[in-house]
Amino acid sequence: ICLFSNSSQICSLAPSSTMERGVMLAVCLLCWSCSVCVVTAIKRADMFPYGTLSGDLILAEGDDETSRVLSLPKPLYFYGSLFSQLYVATNGIISGQDLPMEKQYVDDGFPTDFPVVAPFLADIDTSGGRGQIYYRVTETPSVLNRVAQEVHRGFPDAKFTPTHVVVATWENVAAYEEQTRTAGPSNKVNTFQAVIGYDETDSYVLFLYPEDGLNYFGTRPKESYNVEIELPARVGFSRGEVTYLIFSRTEGPHYSVTSDEQSVKNLYQVGNTGIPGVWLFHTGNRYSFDNIVPASIGGLLDTPPTGGHGLSLYGEFEEYPDNTFDSDNQEEEDDYPHTGGDPEFQPAPAGGDHSESLQPASPDAPSSPSEDSGNQLSYGSEDVPLTSEPRYNSEPAERQYAPPNPPERVPEGDAQRTLKRQPQVTLKHTAFFFTFFSRFQQQCSQNAFCSDYATGFCCHCRPGFYGNGRHCLPEGAPQRVSGKVSGTVTVGSTPVELNNIDLHAYIVVGDGRAYTAISQVPEPVGWALMPLAPIGELFGWLFALELPNSQAGFKITGAEFTRHAEVIFYPGNQRLSIVQTGHGLDDHNHLTVDTVVSGNVPFLPPGAEVTMDPFKETYQYYPSVATSSSVREFSVVSAERGSESFSFQLKQNITYRDCRHDNRAAVLETLQITMERVFVMYVKEERILRYAITNKISPVRVDPTGPELVNPCYAGNHDCDTTAQCIPLEGQVFQCQCATGYRGDGHNCYDINECDEGLSSCGAHSQCVNLPGSHRCQCQSGYEFGFDGRTCVAMTQCVFFFSSSAPSFFLDIDECSSTPCHISARCINGLGSFLCQCQPGFYGDGFYCSQTEVRPRSQCEQHRDRLQSGMEQGGPPSPGAFIPQCDSDGRYQPLQCHGSTGHCWCVDFRGQERTGTRTPPGTAPKDCDRPDEPVRPKTHCEHHRDSVQTTSPGGYPIVGAHVPQCDANGQYTPLQCHGSTGHCWCVDSRGQERAGTRTPPGTQRKDCLPSVAPPTVRPLPRPDVTPPTNTDITLLYAQGQKIGALPLNGTRLDATRSKTLLTLHGSIVVGIAYDCKENQVYWTDLSARTINRASMATGAEPEILINTIDLVSPEGLAVDVKRRLMFWVDSNPDIIESANLDGSGRRTLFDTDLVNPRAIIVVSSTGTLYWTDWNREAPKIESSSVDGQNRRVVVSDGIGLPNALTYDSSSGQVCWADAGTKRLECVSPDGSGRRVVHPSLNYPFSMVYYRNHFYYSDWRRDGVIAVNKDSSQITDEYLPDQRSHLYGITQIIVLSRIFVIKCVEIFKCFK
């Protein structure tokens, strides 16, 4: 009989005359495994004596005080070093050297730079009489004896007789509080004690936390920038910096007892000495000492407070609901035994009549532990034995968990004897001993390994994967996020409820682009939430493009975290709270994040546009929390209000579970995230709110666009596949490597099916399900994952069998209890499984029985039923999934059609598709009864295509893989597009991508040359359309992230009709040109390093023409309408290039004798190029023919910084505006006729000529200035509402119809 008394916590074994001792032992062992004997916490009276009557010194009151030196009569060993003096500090620590200022250590985790014994390291303040701190060194025999007893109880094999003891006590001490934060000081105070006992060779430390001693569990950083965070107290030891190689220093060893707030809360509830609140550690040895060794006896409170959590000594276990030790509800409450010791050890019962526990020992524990039952130490009303088996042993780096088999000892009268292991406890698949161990093993990802350290264990992602070890994702692969958004948002004065609407995000890890879409957003909230880009910024931080010496957030947080953000809008002071919770990875390895928003936001007019400039934000990293605070500005442009500027303040903290036992993985204290492009949009018709942000993470003060980071991997402008990693090499060289779980050349990657290729980690009784870049294992019916998280074992419940020889128990579930079989069948339960058998006279498989004989299910029927039940996908059937059709005899129907896509194809008797029979929707299907025609050998394209398709009859590719497209002859189609990412590119006859042809989604695709010559077709004549006569002239100007339109009324600037033509988030538009023949505007983007164009038609989208790694700093741009060419200068490599207007035919015209080329123009009528070079040593203006011939200098004297350049078509002169000389001048192409038009400009950048007027963009005025050529006077000025530098400027013709057909020379378009 196993007796458990909740009042006295006594575990006893009562002899039975009818039950053999072995049977009794097995039953009690089982009872013990489901229950834990506990004792009460220590009281204040149980602490070591302290105060002035005990001879203590008192530390001065204050926030950051350190005691006078406490000289030791004899030195002590801490770790392996000798210390002859100690210092006691306000902030809950004892040190072997004088302490630095608190700001250098009080908010940091371990290790510290100096030696520390820390019973409660936090920002403590005893000012104003808020507590006392006592300390002394003593040789009092009663204190020495008590320390000796404690050490002998925790370390029975230790030969230790202390000669001196240091006692430090913090009594009723308060936490530091800012005066402005509360109306008065808090009444929460803490009491705790540290006791150091030592002799000539060893030192031991006791930490004591009385029952009511801890009332706050951490303190707030003084420099937290108004972010509401509290850092949990640090408890443990640190050796400090140690010297090596004479002059060098490095971090010494350290040891943490706590890891988060919950573990601090439980310091008085648990202990490693058998008494809750009492902690013992071996802290130094004269001869050899690697790191702190804890005692590991255990001990739990009899009644833990409501709301507590399970705790390990090392703070690295899952948090489970309280174990409240109700004897009436023992089964439900005791999920697993709590322990204050090493996770490999079960807690020891203490108290009562037993000097020994029935707990398993370490595999390395001695078989005959020391016995000293005569010595007992009294705590309150409990008698605690001083003897115990040793609970700590050195172990290898990675533990192999196995059921312990220790010798068991039970009392018999007044004596004790050791029993042999006669009663065998048979564990089938999963014993309850493993229930405890499996909690630790299953915390690691299946793509991680578990490593054990001196202070606990950590999970580490395997090579090819990244994360925090608990959650690991394949490196280089794009990531997806899904979740729900809920809450109440008040827009103006109107509350709007969001009821679990969908959020989806897609992140291209290779270049840091994060796209977030929230569906079904009601219209008033949709417009108002456009500035709330921080909702999507979380995903950008998690998967940002990493620059050297940095790491993205997912490597720190994994997939489980909580983000609290507060947004305060100005000038209205509206406040909005954002709470985003990561719940882990789903079955498809997608991150699941739920978002709750609540509060007020300002009203934005319907149809408004929101623009946000690029910005940088610094993240501060603390143990288990990352914080940031920033102020953002944004512009709102609407028809009702025009352009308005607003701002908001963002304060956020992201909390997560970290693992600091492996001190190799130290996190940088601060990192900087640069959001280079921010795009926000609300689509009214679809009710979708979209955020698009490009994110890079780096150390603080690193410029992501600096010259040292021009490697395309860091710039994000490489051409690697979205499922590939960009690996930077020297200079601008890089390598594309397909992500883990993908295969290919890095430019085109496709998924590896680990299930088909035998590469999975699934064990017996499990099924492999392929995922993009990975796979998962699912157990067959009747099985569940075992302790390792990979092996499937039978679903279990305890079933006991008693025999005369030995008791046994198995773990099984009776599946027949749920009546799974047909009514005319009988169910036969077995270990880990069951069997359905039709009764006599019935036929079938047991799940269906009839009196007529039923043929067995065919391959087609089994295939069909698996898909319909969801077994093939490991869940419910996917909407739109292909289901094969079977005939009445169970054979595959010859013609198979996909109900969702409309594709049809013929199959053979195995259901395999017959090559060449697939037809698209809307076309007549093949006659599958006709014999196959002779099949030509498969081409390279067809082999490539088939290799990435699944083996299903539908022939559909794995989600996310690129499947090459082949034409009817099996050749690669010239244009290849990725169905998942939307990227398109041209290929040659071998399927290899042609450089410079890749286009991102949403942009115009390239006109690719076919890999096989097309048939000759005569061109159709084009109609001769006369352009309309009613035209307007409009100036286009570049201003950072937008292109503005400024109409002219005659020659006057018409500011009333100005508008934004195109918003280009994250861009820096510099050069701008216009093609009046095709009505298109062209521009260079200095930020994205691209050349682009867009049609002037309503709703047209930008198209990237050139986006290659050798385009570094494109500035001036010119379009030759007559020859259909464009020209540009690149001021970084100092070259001038040309290309066709579609970006093809690119060539370098000049790459020598250029220093700082800036402006460039082309005169189509003469075929002449002009450009400026504001080399400060020798500035000049040059010219050449459009083919790069006849290069010569036009002007080289009397100029300074010739920024702007234009052509006066009326006089045939070239004119320039000089930011150095401040003059506007003109000269004939042969160098004659030079004259000054205006002598004192401000700071011109770009210029255009129209009807006797020069219009130039001015950086001093941030506007457009008009100068009359004849009067040399400034006649007009336009200053945009948004004040920032204007760059390029050009002129366009705005027609009453949308097309222009004939344009011989650019300036004739405007006549």
Automatic annotation (TrEMBL):
UniProt feature, compositional bias: Low complexity: 360-373
The EGF-like domain, residue ranges: 709-750, 751-793, 812-850
Keywords: Basement membrane, Calcium, Cell adhesion, Disulfide bond, EGF-like domain, Extracellular matrix, Glycoprotein, Repeat, Secreted, Signal
Source superkingdom: Eukaryota
PROSITE patterns, per the entry: ASX_HYDROXYL, EGF_2, EGF_3, EGF_CA, LDLRB, NIDO, NIDOGEN_G2, THYROGLOBULIN_1_1
GO biological process: canonical Wnt signaling pathway; cell-matrix adhesion; epithelial cell differentiation
UniProt protein name: Nidogen 2
SMART domains from the UniProt entry: EGF, EGF_CA, G2F, LY, NIDO, TY
Sequence ranges of the LDL-receptor class B repeats: 1079-1123, 1124-1166, 1167-1211
Database matches in InterPro entries: 6-blade_b-propeller_TolB-like, Cueball_EGF_LRP_Nidogen, EGF, EGF-like_Ca-bd_dom, EGF-type_Asp/Asn_hydroxyl_site, EGF_Ca-bd_CS, G2_nidogen/fibulin_G2F, GFP
Subcellular location: Secreted, Extracellular space, Extracellular matrix, Basement membrane
Stretches assigned to the Nidogen G2 beta-barrel domain: 477-707
Gene coding for it: nid2a
Domain Thyroglobulin type-1 as annotated: residue spans: 857-928, 938-1008
GO molecular function, a single term: Wnt-protein binding
Pfam families reported in the protein's UniProt record: EGF_3, EGF_CA, G2F, Ldl_recept_b, NIDO, Thyroglobulin_1
Main location: secreted
NIDO domain mapped to chain residues: 119-286
Disulfide linkage: C897-C904, C977-C984
Basic and acidic residues compositional bias, start-end: 926-947
Compositionally skewed regions (Pro residues) per UniProt: 1012-1026
